[in-house]
Amino acid sequence: MVFLRYLVALPLLVASVVGVPTGYHVLSSYLYRRELRDEKFDVVGEFRESFTENVVGWPMALAIVLLVVFWWMTTAWPKIALVPSVPASVGGAIIGLIDGWENAASAATAPFVAWGLAWLAGKIVSWPVTGEVRRSAVEIAVGLRGGGRLRVQSRRLLLDKLPPPVHPMSPIGRVAIRFDRISAVEAGVVHTPAPWRLANTSELTLTPGEVLRVIGGGQEWLLPVGDAAALRQLVVERAEHRAVPDPRPAMESDRWSHAKNLWELAGQEPPVRNTRTVNHGNRWAALIISALTTPMALFSVFRIFTDGWGYLVGVFFFGLIAWIATHVWFRQGVLYKLTEENPVSPMADEPDPQRNPVTGWSAQPVVLGQTRDL
Asked: What is the secondary structure of 229-249 as a DSSP string?
């Protein structure tokens, strides 16, 4: 059962977001006391005190909230695990440069340990891919030959880690197809090397071997994978059980601004091919600012009840910055998500599944009712 996998993975997640930062705090305190030749060291007391440290406490709480929200997105768990460990390790590294190499070494190691534990937890939940996992909401990541990654998510297929878009004006570095818009999924083989351009103008190199063909939402994907038949089974079953219609907004909506810019690039060849990845830095900068100022605003609210109304200034100042940053982050997320799922105009015709997409393509026969685990 998928539930049992989560139970097995839970201790690893707790260790990555709670055990690593608190453990590092206890270790750094011990090294400091040893430097002072203080023979008394209360491990339990230091562990309790670590929860009250601002550099540990609120990032740890934020990471726990993010894990609850993104319980199905296993590829995000390692990044979430870095939220509490990185701030603690940065401070420890600075202190370690003064007090000794042991503190600096432990500070540098903490993020890697947290990342590894969360990565292992994600693998326990998502692999191997059995029938229950195929029908669940758990995200499953599959690497592509030659670069790129397919993420089979709860409601859609997402391609990321793609080569840079050929056109420098492409606004996105990822593309997605919602399950409710998939019209054909086919396992096949490519016998000769061929390039395949996606709707965001990123190009995949199809090397000879198995390929998964997906058509939907005006897009056509050819994905070089290791086991196309098993991946096809995963996509088909996930779509049957998890597809939920998601009506598009009206075409007059300003949420289509990025998508319309991408539609205009269709069929164009830039004079110079782009080699730089798409920069989404503004959105993540807004998220970081929001994460930093929201606790400050909440702390100012707390201080109003303990130290007077003078802290109302902090509530309004930090609260306004947090609200603006959160709004920017959410707004940009909506625009990018809509563009990823609609890199082709909804008015465009669906690709013909009967034609050969590239030279050297041949479809694999599919046995009805066949199930295979990845």
From this structure: HHHHHHHHHHHHHH----PPP
Task: Please tell me the distance from the alpha carbon of residue 284 to that of residue 79, in angstroms, as a whole number.
Answer: 13
Confidence at residue 13, expressed as pLDDT on a 0 to 100 scale: 97
- Number of structural domains the chain divides into: 2
Between 280 and 241, whose confidence is greater? 241
Q: Are 34 and 10 in a shared domain? A: yes
d(CA 117, CA 103): 21
| Residue-wise pLDDT tens digits, 214-237 | 999 999 999 999 999 999 999 999
Domain finish residue from 217, 246, 275: 246
338 Cβ partners below 8 Å, 6+ apart? 248, 249, 255, 256, 258, 259
Name the residue with tokens 């669906």.
350
Alpha carbons 120 and 359: distance in angstroms, whole number: 40
DSSP 271: S
Task: Give yes or no for a contact between 103 and 92, defined as CB atoms under 8 angstroms apart.
Answer: yes
Residues of the domain holding 215:
138-246
Q: What is the pLDDT of residues 124-149, one digit of tens each?
A: 999 999 999 999 999 999 999 988 99
Amino acid present at 158? L
User: Residue 28: which region, alpha, beta or left (left: phi > 0; alpha: psi -120 to 50)?
Assistant: alpha
81 in the same domain as 35: yes
Distance CA 170, CA 201 (A): 7
- What span, in angstroms and rounded, lies between the C-alpha atoms of 118 and 91? 22
Interhelix angle 20-35/54-69, rounded to 10 degrees, is 170
